[in-house]
Design goal:
Shape: globular
Largest sheet: none
Helix content: over 70%
Distance between the termini: 51 Å
Number of strands: 0
Radius of gyration: 20 Å
Number of helices: 17
Strand content: under 5%
């Protein structure tokens, strides 16, 4: 790939994106397109659309992978590494700082109220995201394929409730079932099936011990978040709250809220879990393990990256795993709701849901309003969740 600009330019522009990338994946894609296609013409419009589609076929945070790919096209391998890091680091620093404050041994009551209020609003956010993703998952399909997608959504939801930490196997299983069905319907056009191969490797990894519990949790987050960043919510909550006991349900709700109000991908929520588990070192370890697959997929993929969009095996696998992941988001509502301890939090959750669905208010403004309401509730003497 020809280098079209300097590493310094990539560093400057991707750092700017890292500091201003509020609003989730849709905002990130729009910002990258404005920079790389419209303003600087580093990438042709059709190539950008192909790259965006390919990123959505890979596990992991799609907008982060697109940011890495765009940096790769603009300035080469070193630019991809530096640009990807600078896209992630500003939000990561912010979320770790907020984690240190929110998870401190004795935060002020109003600060506890902020976390309890924003955490309550997460219920509405998850409902909104799950609803939007379920519609987009079903829309491209017709007939039996749409019915299968609906079944995969149901399996994903039930698996979170029924099998907890093994939800990742349900996602993999749905992907492989759809792949088998598609291959039976028509011969594959290509033998390259990266997501399916990765799924088999990760499934095998569940049968052996890992170096640390935190690294394994972060690997699942970074390598299995098919269908959007919110897929990590049930995966992380099961490990962080129920399996290893690093956090309470209320603290986890607050962690998800922090991942929404800071710039960058939702996957950065794993840093809060890492901080709860092992302090600053845990936050850095979890972040490294969670984001490493994205760099490997894009930078090591080289010329085969864009061909992923037209790969029938990859699309078939994602057509099974993606809807199951959406279902897992819905299933996460039950364990998430267990983190709401008081009536006033349920009132905020209901109000946030109304704002997101009825008033079409954005996620970040909704969470900030909920945080302010929580602070006011705490100052008025409302009961607050336990510290740990």
């Amino acid at each position: 790939m020809a280098h079209q600009t300097s590493i310094g330019t990539v560093a400057r522009e991707w750092a700017r994106l890292g500091f201003t990338g509020f609003g989730g994946p849709q905002a990130h894609v729009a910002m990258l397109r404005e920079l790389c296609v419209e303003r600087e013409s580093w990438i042709e419009p059709d190539e950008f659309e192909h790259a965006n589609a390919a990123c959505n076929l890979l596990p992991g945070p799609a907008s982060t992978q697109l940011a890495i790919y765009c940096a790769l096209r603009a300035g080469g391998q070193w630019a991809a590494l530096i640009g990807g890091l600078l896209f992630i680091i500003p939000g990561l620093v912010m979320i770790i700082a907020l984690a240190a404050i929110s998870l401190s041994s004795a935060p002020a009551d109003w600060l506890r109220g902020v976390g309890a209020g924003a955490g309550a609003a997460v219920i509405g956010v998850v409902l909104r995201v799950g609803w939007d993703l379920s519609r987009s998952s079903l829309a491209p399909h017709e007939g039996l394929r749409r019915w299968r997608a609906a079944i995969y959504i149901a399996i994903g939801a039930i698996s979170v409730i029924a099998v907890g930490p093994f939800v990742v196997l349900a996602l993999i299983g749905c992907g492989l079932v759809e792949l088998i069905i598609r291959r039976a319907e028509a011969p594959p056009l290509s033998s390259f099936a990266a997501p399916a191969a990765l799924a088999v490797l990760v499934a095998a990894a569940t049968t052996v011990s890992t170096q640390t519990q935190l690294a394994w949790t972060a690997l699942k987050v970074g390598a299995l978040s098919y269908g959007g960043g919110f897929v990590i919510v049930p995966i992380m909550q099961e490990d962080a709250v129920r399996v290893y006991g690093w956090m309470t349900d209320g603290q986890f709700l607050n962690a998800v809220a922090l991942g929404q109000i800071t710039p960058g991908p939702v996957v950065q929520t794993v840093a809060v879990v890492g901080y709860a588990a092992a302090g600053l070192g845990g936050a850095l370890l979890a972040s490294f393990v969670a984001f490493a697959p994205s760099f490997l997929f894009v930078m090591a993929g080289g010329g085969r990256f864009l061909s992923l969009r037209n790969n029938t095996d990859a699309r078939a696998f994602l057509d099974g795993a993606g809807p199951a992941a959406v279902g897992a988001i819905f299933g996460a509502l039950i364990p998430l709701a267990s983190g709401l301890s008081f009536t006033w939090q349920w009132v905020i959750a209901a109000a946030a849901t109304a704002l997101l669905f009825g008033a079409k208010l954005g996620v970040v403004p909704t969470l900030l309003l909920a945080a302010a309401a929580g602070a006011i509730a705490a100052l008025l003497g409302a009961p607050l969740p336990a510290l740990g």
